Amino acid sequence: MARLPRLTLPGYPHHLIQRGNNRQAIFASAADYQYLLSLLFENAKKFDVAVHAYVLMENHFHLLATPDSENGISRLMQAVGRSYVRYFNDLHSRSGSLWEGRYRSTLIEADQYLLLCMAYLDLNPVRAGKVAQAQDYAWSSYGHYAGLHSDKLVTPHSLIWTLGNTPFAREAAYAERVRIGVNSHQQLALTESALNGWALGGENFVAELQKNTPRRVQKSAAGRPFSKVKPE
């Protein structure tokens, strides 16, 4: 079966996953993490993509981002991917592909899933056993939302302002949201929707999306089941 084109529409938040080839490491030092972040910042500005949240793991990374144009995310990911591979290969004396094929993505219903997706990203290092708490991990946007530091890459989604009337209240509410966590069903839904390219949201949200694109936005009842994947 031919692979569906990516589901990408301007103005909606998108959850993206890019993995290393064969799950190999894509970062070997702190400088590598910093360089990818600098590429994301430069190209998000260039292609008018608002990056709301991110987490960089040893062998993959996640973004939560809203594009202003239909091709903004693809242009961002292509530019970042090519530049980073060239940098990484030159620095580490290697050649060939670094990525496991093309990046995966889909769009999500903001009201229902945006804050949940942000917590899911921030808790990725905790689930992987890298740190005990989200605040202990250096390579995510958690610190920005919890008031630990300012991150120039991050553009908060408007839903962040609903968390409180002051910066302190919003930071405390977001930290509590992450502390509450994400259950296994929610983890799987967020992972599989991105990997399979199906929209994640309620029935009305999905129906409205379908009006805006000829591309099918959810699997049909008779379609293949989701692939079984490990939440990331």
From TrEMBL:
GO MF annotations, alphabetized: DNA binding; transposase activity
SUPFAM superfamilies xref list: Transposase IS200-like
Would you kindly state one Gene Ontology biological process term found in this protein's UniProt entry? DNA transposition
Which parts of the sequence belong to the Transposase IS200-like domain? Answer: 9-124
**Xref: Pfam families:** Y1_Tnp (PF01797)
Q: Where are the annotated coiled coils located? A: none
Designated name of the protein: Transposase IS200-like domain-containing protein
- The source organism is Polaromonas vacuolata
